[in-house]
## 1
Amino acid sequence: MNYNWNWGIFWQPSPEGTGTYFDMLLSGLKWTIITAACAWFIALVLGSMIGILRTLPSRIANIIGTGYVELFRNIPLLVQLFLWYFVLPELVPRSMGLWLKQLPNAAFYTAFIGIGLYMSARVAEQVRAGINALPRGQALAGKALGLTVAQTYLYVLLPMAFRIILPPLTSEFLNTIKNTSVALTIGLLELTGRARSMQEFSFQVFEAFTAATLLYLLINAVVVLAMRAVERSVSVPGYSAGR
Amino acid sequence: MFSNFDFNVIVRTLPYLFFEGMRFTLTLTAMATLGGVVLGTLLAMMRMSGRPLLPGVAASYSNLMRSLPLVLVIFWFYFLIPYVGQWVTGGSRPIAVGAFMSAFVTFTLFEAAYFSEIMRAGIQSVSRGQAAAGYALGLTYWQVMGHIVLPQAFRNMLPVLLTQTIILFQDTSLVYVLSITDFLGAASKIAQRDGRLVEMYLFAAVVYFLISFALSRVVKRLQTETAIPH
C-alpha cells in the first residue's frame, strides 16, 4: 500500500488559521455532542408524550400518536432535514422565511430540531412498549385507588416503564449521536464533517477518519458506561430478579 | 403558500426520477440486503461457533460497525476500497472504483453487522435440542445449520429482517454524500437545476413515506401471521 502515512498531521496548523487539525476535530466533536444533547432532549420529551398518547384509552389520542410515529419513522432522516432546511422557509410567510434563511447557526438549529423530531418517533415506540410491558393490573390498581389517569401515569406506570426501557433508550441515544453526522449535508461542522474537511485540506484521509472513528468509539464507551451506572442506581431491588 | 407550486416539474421529470434514481435505490437496497443477510448469517455462525478467535473477530466487527455513523463508514470505504483493491490485485497504483461499486460494498459490509445481530437472535430462537438431535443422527455442522437451524431462524426473524430492510431502504439516501444519483440524488439534482426545491423534496418525502409505510404494513401482517397463537 503506497500511502504516505503522516500521523504528525494532527499537530500541524489547519488552513482555517484557528489552530491545529486536532483542534478542528475537537471542535467537530463539541458540535456533535451539543447537537446530540439538544436533539435527545427534544426526542425524550416529545417521544414520551407521544408514547403515552398511544397507550391512553382514547381513540383520538391513539390516532394522533400513531400518525405522528408513522410520519416521522417512514421518511429518511436526510430528507426530513432537507425539508426543514430548504423547504420550510419557502412555505412560511415571506418575511418569516427570510428571517429563517438569515438565522445564524441555522444548520445547528435545523439539525437538532430535525434529528430530535425524527428520534422522538423512535423514543415514542419504546415508551409505548415499556408501558404495555407492565401488567394490566397496575393501571387497574391505580384506578381502584382513586387516582386520576394523570396520577396513575405519573406515580405508577411511568416510573417502572422508564426503568424497563432504559437499555433500548441507551441505544436510541447512541443512534441520536450517530445521526448527527447526517447534518453535515446541511453544513453542520460536526465530527464526520470535520474529518472530511481535514481530508480535503491535508489529503491525509486515513489519519483523519481513524481519529474520527476513535472519537466516536470514545463517546459510545462513555455513554454506555454512564447509562449502566444510571441503570444500577435506579434499579428497584427484587423487581428484575427473574431475569 | 402553494400558489406557485409547480406540479409540472414533477410530471416532467418522473422518468428520470424513477428509471434513473429509484432504480438505483432499489437495486442498492436489494443487493445490500442479500449480501448483508448472507454475510450477517456467516458472522452470527462465527460468533456462536465456540471455536477460538472466531467469536471475538465477529463480535468486534459487528460492534465496531454499529458504533460508527453510516456517513463516516461511507467515506471510509470510499477512500479505502481503491487501496484494498490495489493490495488484492498487486497493482502499482490504487485501482479506480466508481462511487456505485463503493456504495454496494459499503452497504453490504455495514448492514451485515446489523443483520448478524438479528440472525444471532434467530439462531438462538431455535431450541438447542434440535441441533443436538441433528448431530445425534450423524449430520455434519453444515447439514444441521442448513437443514434444521437456519430455515427456522429465517422464518422466526422474517419480520425483523424486513424491518431492517426498510431501514436500509431509507439509509440508502445517504449515498447523497457521494453525489450518486439515487432517488434523492435525482430529485436533488432537478431541484437545484430548476430551482424547484419545495416541489422535489416534498415529492421525494411522499414517495419514501409511501414505500416505507406500505412495507411496514406488510411486516405487521407477517408478524400476526407467523406469531405462535397463544
## 2
Amino acid sequence: MALAFKIAARFIKSSKGQTILIVLGIAIGVSVQVFIGTLIQGLQISLIDKTVGSSSQITVTSKNDDRAIDKWNGKVNDIKSLNVGIKNVSEAADFSGFVKYNNKTSPILLRGFIFSNADSIYKIKDSLIQGKEPSSDNEVLVGKDLRDNLSVKLGDKITILTPKGKNEQVTITGFYDLKVSSLNNSWIITNMRTAQNIFDFGDKVTSIEMQANDVFTADVVAKAVANKLDSSNLKVDNWKVTNAATLSGLSGQSASSYMIQVFVLLSVILGIASVLAITVMQKSKQLGILKAMGIKDRVASLIFLFEGLILGIFGAVFGVLLGLGLTYSFSKFALNTDGTPLVPLYLDYKFILLSGLIAVVSATIAAVIPAIKSSKLDPIEVIKNG
Amino acid sequence: MAKIIELKNISKVYGTTIKTKVLHDINLSFEEHSFNSIIGASGSGKSTILNIMGTLDRPTTGEVYINGKRTDNMVKNELAELRNKTIGFIFQFHYLLPEFTVLENVLMPYNIGYGRPTKEIIARAEELLNLVGLTEVKNNLSINISGGQQQRTAIARALINNPKLVLADEPTGNLDSKSTENIYELLRDINKEFKTTFVIITHDDRIAEKTSRIVEIEDGKIKKEVTS
C-alpha cells in the first residue's frame, strides 16, 4: 500500500507538465459543475421565492356555497399537529366587493387576516411602502396600484361595498407593494374581524393557507392535510396543481442542469482515463522492472488507482476553488440595473462537497482501466524489447 | 555442493502459428557460490535461458528448480515473491527508475519485499553503494549519473536483498572497456565476499575466461562446457 502510494506520488511529481494538464482538466470540469450547479440552484431558489415563496402553497377552502369554514381554530390546530414539513399557517376571510372613493369605484378582494400569521407568508410588513399595519378594527392596507387608481393617501376614508348592498367606511393606514400588480390593484387587507363584520360572516373563515418547508413536497403535504381534516366539504389545493406551468419550468431547469452535469462528469472521466492510459504506456518500462524485482500485480495496479485518487483530489480542490471564484465574480459583475445580482448567490455546501467528491471518485474509477492494464503487463515484454 | 538452480529437459517455443523453437531439451544446473558465464552468438537462446532461470519467462516443456523448489508451475504471486527474495537481476540496460534517487533505487527490492526500509537496511544500501563507488551520487536522481554509474547502481540494487543468485544479462554490454573491467572485478569480489552465485551472459570471450565455468550455447543447445 505505502509503496504503491509512494511510487504513484513520485510518478505524478516527476511528470509535472502532464500532472498539471490532468489536474487542470479535472479542475475545469469540477468548476463548471460547481458554477452551473450553484447558478441554477440560485436561479431556482430565487424563482421559487418570487413565484410561490410569498404566497400560499397549500390552501384549504370550502366546497359549500357560502365558502365558509367554521370551527377553524380546531382545524388549524389539527394541521399544525401534523409533522409533514408544514410552516407558516395563516387563516383568511376573503370577500369580493367594491371600493368607492369620491366618484371612482373598483372591484376588490377584501382579505381579513390575523396579521402575525399572514405576515409569515405574505411578508406584509416588509412590503409596506408607506404607513403601518392596522392596529384596530376598520383600518385597512391598500395596494400601490389601487392607491394610484383611486388617488388616495394615508388616513383617507374609503367605502367598501358588499354584493348585498351594505357599505362600510374604513380608514387607510398604509400602502403595500407585493410586486404583483394584479394583487396591488385588487387586495385590500384588513384584520379578520373587520372583514367578517362587513360581510356579516360570523366567526368563520374562507380559507386556511400554509407553506411547506420544501415547496416541491406541497402535493404530499396537501394530501396529508386532506387526510387529517377528513371532510368532504373541504378542498385542499396545492401550488403544483394550480401553478403547473411554473412547476414544469422549474423541473425542466433542474433536468437540464443535471444533463449538463452528467456530461461534464463524463468528459472529465474520459479525459482522466485516456491520460492515465497513456501514462501506463509511458511507465511500462518502470512497471516491467518493478515486476522483475518482485512487485505483485495487485500493488502494480494500486499505483495507478492512487495516481487517479491523488489527481482527483488535487483536481477537485482546485476545481471547487475555481468554481466558487467564478460564481462569486458572476454574482459581483452580472448585475441587474438596480445593482442587485442577476442571479442571487446561493452556496449549497453539500452540493459543492458532493461535486468534489464525485470528481475524486470518478478519477479513481477512471484509473481502473489503466490499473488493470498495469496488472496484466508481463515483465518479460519489457525486458526483451528494451 | 548444493545446486542453486537446475533446468531439466527445457524446451522453449515462441509463436503460435509460426513456431520457432529456440531451446532444445536443455539440461543445466549451477552450484551454490559458483561464478559462471553463458556465452553464445546473438540469437543462440542464451537470454531465453536466463529469463527462464529468472522465472520471468516460462518454459514450453521441462522443469525448473530454484533452491530446490520447482518454479515452472508456480502462480504469478509466488514467482514475484521468489524473484524478490532469492534472485537479483542485472540487465544490459540498467532499468533504474528515473523518478527515484540512486539510494531509493537500491532500496526498491527491499521496499517491495519487506516494506519501509529500516535503519540497518539503509546502512547496508549505503555500504553497497560505497562498494560500487557511488557514495557521492547516492542522492542524485538516477537519470543524473553516467552510464557506468547507473550500471553499478543496478548491481547494488541486485544485491540489497542478499539474494542467493544473481542473473546478469550482458551487464557491461554498453560500457567502455575500462568500466567493463571494473565491473567484473566488482562482481568477482562480491562473489567471494557474499558467496553469491552468479550467472552472467556475455558474448565477450575475454570476460567469460574470468569465470570459473563457461557454458557455450549454440542454436538452442549446449555446445560445450569449460570448468576451470
